[in-house]
Amino acid sequence: MDTSYLDLLAKIYDKESKVVTEMINLEAILNLPKGTEHFVSDLHGEFHAFQHVLRNGSGNVKTKINDLLKDELSDDEINEFATLVYYPEEKLKLIKNEMENSQSLNQWYNKTIERMINLVLFASSKYTRTKVRKALPKQFDYITEELLYKTDELSNKKNYYHKIVERIISLRQVDKFIAGLAYTIQRLVVDHLHVVGDIYDRGPQPDKIMDTLINYHSVDIQWGNHDVLWIGAYSGSKVCLANLIRICARYDNLDIIEDVYGINLRPLLNLAEKYYDDNQAFRPKNNASEENIFENEQLQKTKIHQAITMIQFKLEMPIIKRRPDFNMSRRLVLENIDYEQKIITLYGEEYSLENDCFATVNPDQPDQLLEEEEQVMNKLLFAFQHSEKLARHMKFFMKKGSLYLKYNGNLLIHGCIPLNEDGTMKEMVIKDKSHSGRELLDIFESYLRYSFAHPERTDDLATDMVWYLWTGENSSLFGKKEMTTFERYFIKDKMAHVEEKNHYYYLRADEEVCREILKEFDLDPDQGRIINGHTPVLEISGENPIKANGKMIVIDGGFSKAYQSKTGIAGYTLLYNSFGMQLVAHNKFTSKEDVLKNGTDVLSVKRLVDREVERKKVMETNNGEKILQQISDLKHLMEYRYRIDQ
Q: What average pLDDT does this structure show over 470-483?
């Protein structure tokens, strides 16, 4: 081992007793039960639904409360107590308003603090005291620890503990104390959070989800196709930028760009109002029918939607032409239009065009941007790359994110592993070299990270590759032959809208295929599972999210309101603790107010995926591998010191 590293380690552990103590501590931790992992996917900006699922730990909080207090509290009282843990500040206000006098309130405070302390102790039973201390409310960590680990066999300290609670109440700190305990419980019931892609687009508040994740105690992210679109825009891809603005316009979410990230869309609006009129196909989807939306505002958004869509189609064409390896020549749609007859020829078929808005297209050179369009995109890109809040969110994406993750024996991936019809790994040629499987995903990620590190480059291979991840046939995030955006806007025949899925989505129910994928990523095919998002599970039609004899678990059940009519539910989440895995289906989240008033929760059915024969320990996890390496390093340090002393 490198002696310079051992010298550095020796400065931290400057005494033999410190080394021995740390080794004993680490080896003991290896034998604790593994912490609970919480998996969510395809949040699509639905902050309030996500926040509720995070606060209740997909039902894990209520499970702990039931286990601890089922003999003491009724079902209604358990629901009330659970709501207090989920939303302590808001619930406290409601409870205080209902109390008849201060004496009743003080009695309630005393009993509630006792239950909260017991619940913290119960939820922390598989953690070290050091880890629990880090989770305690900072303002009250000392007194909370005293109450947690109180011993009173001889009644010597009874008054001491009573006085602590009494003074918390008399000093008017009790609401803050209870709230701190509630957040400690939320933190303790979930050890680590996995977000399996697609935080952005469709829903209204992805920024609040990002802020929540930045402050979360332990999290990783597997990028989704919509996430990569935002990363690509920030990294310098104008075509990614055009795509995301188009999607925001389509789902009436332009406020995210203007109000949240401070990006001025006035130049785009000026361009849109100059060249475009009303167009039913480009009316915003989400809120157009709401009475409080002004017609003029909707018309402006409709014009912006058309303007940015045409810019997008133009920007795609040079990339397709300079990257023959992308095999996307079929998407040079603007070259296949008879602009006088309003007819397009696609795949040997002629289609009439409806809802056309080609005022800025030069039929002789359809990929040519107007000077005004060029200026608008330059201004928008500059604004995106200089938004402080967006920069913070994108940097967090890169720090915590990846295209796939191997974690505790499982493979986490948002989209797919591109496959051929026979289940073999599909190959893609990049710079005259063929790549497939894990190697292809590693190549994709290396290009994405390079593009992010060089935002000044807007048309190199790395930047083009980020766009390919959004829409390319061999992209692990897209997973379809081509994206039929143009057809959906302009062609009435719905057969032209169909997007042919990669064979992965038909083969992932095959256990042997899943086992081969796990082997490709050096995971145990007997023990490992693939945890997947991206494609909503149509539970309303009887689709099962648990596939391939449990080797494949799909957890996109429709957090996004745009999908819920198709899925029949409002999302799946997954819990994996030392006892095994449980899949949780969620009913539609109405509002926080409904939860506070009625104790309504959004859980429906919990399904057992698998139960461990023996409780899984820390030593069998990714964290266990790190601890074993730390123990090995400390052993080397002791041997190194012994040699020096000799």
A: 95
Sign (positive or negative) of CA dihedral 68, 70, 73, 77: positive
Q: How far apart are CA 392 and CA 411, in angstroms?
A: 28
Instruction: Report the alpha-carbon distance of residue 98 to residue 137 in Å, rounded.
Output: 27
Query: How high is the pLDDT of residue 288?
Result: 42
Considering the entire predicted model, what is its pTM?
A: 0.92
- Beta strand spans in 569-617 (E): 572-577, 580-586, 603-611
pLDDT at residue 290 tops 90: no
C-alpha to C-alpha distances, 612 to 35, 124, 337, 605, nearest whole angstrom? 14, 21, 60, 20
Alpha helices in 360-416 (DSSP H): 371-385, 388-400
- Strand pairing of 572-577 and 580-586? antiparallel
- The average pLDDT across 149-168 equals 78
Q: Is pLDDT above 50 for 463? A: yes
The DSSP element (H or E) to which 337 belongs, if any, is: strand 337-338
Beta strand 337-338 pairing with 343-346: antiparallel
CB 572 within 8 Å of CB 556: yes
Cα 318 from Cα 459, distance rounded (Å) = 9
**Which pairing describes strands 219-222 and 401-402: parallel, antiparallel, or unpaired?**
parallel
Beta bridge partners of residue 575, listed in sequence order? 38, 582
Residue 610 φ/ψ, nearest 5 degrees:
-165, 150
472 vs 631, residue with greater confidence: 472
Distance CA 611, CA 272 (A): 57
Tally the C-alpha atoms within 13 A of residue 138's C-alpha that lie toward its C-beta.
Answer: 0
Three-class SS state of 577: strand
Residue partners of 254: CB distance under 8 A and separation at least 6: 245, 248, 265, 301, 304
Residues 363-397, buried b or exposed e (16+ Cβ, 10 A)? eeebbbbbeebeebbebbbebbbebeebeebbebb
The interaxial angle of helices 371-385 and 238-250, nearest 10 deg, is 90
Picking from 621, 197, 552, 556, the residue whose alpha carbon sits closest to that of residue 407 is: 621
What token pair was written down for 391?
């920069």
